Amino acid sequence: MAQLIGGLATSHIPAIGGAIHKGKQNEPYWKPFFDGFPPIHRWLDQARPDIVVVFYNDHGLNFFLDKMPTFAIGAAAEYRNADEGWGIPTLPPMPGCPELSWHLINELIAREFDIVTCQEMLVDHACTLPFKLFWPDHEVAPVQIVPININTVQFPLPTARRVYKLGKAVGEAIQRWDGDKRVAVMATGGLSHQLDGERAGFINKSFDLQFLDSMETNPEWATQFSDLELVEKAGTQGVALLMWLAMRAALTVAGSGVRKVHSNYHIPISNTATGVLALETV
Q1: Set 12, 103, 193, 266: catalytic member
Q2: pTM of the prediction?
Q3: Catalytic residue at 266?
């Protein structure tokens, strides 16, 4: 059976890709952010996942405001990068794992989640940037991926509680998969930020730190908040923390708990609070 080994989470701000491309990792503005990754790199060298199921949000490549699914899963053999041009250059395709994709799709639909199935899917910085951050020495990360898109763009959004249930169902489905693979789950986006409107530049450090702590100690903590309450606390784009919630929920089904490998919090990067986290199942 598949082994669920842990979870990863990081911000996916396009400017990070530009910093990688221009070799700015050690400049004073960027160094506090990039310094959060080496301990996770060392853990990944030991953990060696074969597949990463990544919870992310699409930025208009596959879905736009006229057609916005709540949840969508890629079931492709490969995923081509078609970024907006703000960050890293276009990368070679990322390999998919259709066998696990279809297993998750069938399991989730059987559990009454209405899933959009995508046998072709483009990926943007929300998907490609995290893999460059966690595997910086590889042009393409040495893993297969299964992308799961969660709508955090257009209201009505899925509630935090619904996203938590999705993540837990994904974790349970991974453990029931008969593939002999080591699987990690990943979340991308956030933390608190707002890019437009009267609160442009809004960051809520105290909420972010409490949320980060809950990822280790109380994974259901954020499910108490409605979507509007999350916008109030984390900003319009800060609702991307829903992806972190799905990742963490997936790990609740594995073993006796999780151990924090490493975390880092830094503000600001491009008017955004950035977070990095790795959790290992125990």
Answers
A1: 193
A2: 0.94
A3: no
